[in-house]
Amino acid sequence: MQQAGAGPRALTVVRQHHSLGAARDLDFGIELLGLAKAGRIGPTLRLYRPAPTVAFGQRDTRLAGFGAAAQACREQGFEPLIRKAGGRAAAYHEGTLIVDHVEPHTDAIAGAKGRFAFFGEMLAQALRSTGVDAAVGEIPGEYCPGEFSVHGTDPEVPSHQVKLVGTAQRVVSGGWLFSSVIVVENSAPIRSVLTASYAALGLDWDPATAGAADDLVPHLDVQAIEDAVISTYGGYAALAHADFSSLQG
To answer: HEC states along the chain?
Structure first.
């Protein structure tokens, strides 16, 4: 794997067992990037289950229907937030797993596109290890479309594919943050809030592309996917584990 680079690599895995609140969870990833840039932490993987959130992209805020979209989120119990990364609106809740991977890097910009391909395939591999027929690539009509989205194929209806993982990246001088949202359980509320949000924004998409891993492989849960992600990362780096408190000042 090219992104693994030459020589030994170490990665500290931190499980955040409780949400800090929608806005604080989102901001904390950026704070970790700042710590990595400053050399205060090394390569770190933070995993957590978020509070119900719709993270809008910067472009969404410039659309006439943004206010109505944000209100639609609140009415369905999701907090509307604006993320610093690009893309369109993406929804997540306690049935999803967020993986924030931060690393200090002297030339973080140089490998930005390669990270999308590399970590997208790594996450697809983790899903495949749990029985999901997963692959990297945009599917027609998906929400927050991206070349390196991870999708799954319905084993009963091979023509039906659903987006399972969205990825975003923030790169600064001295470090990078690669954030992934894996939808594992309870896709109906996500599909509902995205339908309302995208309608308000005037954006076309196909609600059938919004799904969860347990729609394809029944009984999968967030813990199983979290364990699979960590196991797969074990092929990328030597893993150490730390308490979440170690990241808090």
So the answer is: CHHHCCCCCEEEEEEECCCCCHHHHHHHHHHHHHHHHCCCCCCEEEEECCCCEEEECCCHHHCCCHHHHHHHHHHCCCEEEECCCCCCCEEECCCEEEEEEEEECCCCCCCHHHHHHHHHHHHHHHHHCCCCCEEECCCCCCCCCCCCCEEEECCCCCCCEEEEEEEEEEEECCEEEEEEEEECCCHHHHHHHHHHHHHHHCCCCCHHHECCHHHHCCCCCHHHHHHHHHHHHCCCCEEEEECHHHHCC
